[in-house]
Amino acid sequence: MTTESQLASLVERLEQHDSLGFDTEFVSEHTYRSHLCLIQVAAGDELAVIDTLKVQELDPFWRLMTDPRRTTVVHAGREEMGFILHAIG
Questions:
Q1: CATH number at residue 80
Q2: What is the number of structural domains in the chain?
């Protein structure tokens, strides 16, 4: 995914699932806060990679990942929680 419209379409498809999984890739060297570069997400047969260097508006994605009606699985989620808290509080 490299555009906000592609991300919006992905979020619509992901909303159909009760459980989701995601992982991020980031750069943290020489920075105060980690710089998010990539999000990998899976739900059912849906697999996607979001280029966060091109897609700037991630709030709809983060809101979906924190929806209490869903089970969200995160690999080593400490950094991911920081991204979510910074994005949507």
A1: 3.30.420.10
A2: 1
Report the distance separating Cα 61 and Cα 64, nearest Å.
5
Q: How far apart are CA 55 and CA 83, in angstroms?
A: 14
* Cα 40 from Cα 10, distance rounded (Å): 12
Q: Are 9 and 61 in contact (CB under 8 A)?
A: no
Q: Which domain holds residue 76?
A: 4-88
pTM exceeds 0.90 for this model: no
Please enumerate in sequence order all residues whose Cβ is within 8 A of that of 75, keeping only pairs 6 or more positions apart, or say none: 21, 23
Q: pLDDT tens digits, residue range 27-63? A: 866 666 678 889 999 999 999 999 999 999 999 998 9
Please identify which residue in the block is written with the tokens 């379409």.
9
Task: Compute CA distances 86 → 12, 23, 42, 62, 76, whole Å.
Answer: 23, 17, 23, 10, 18
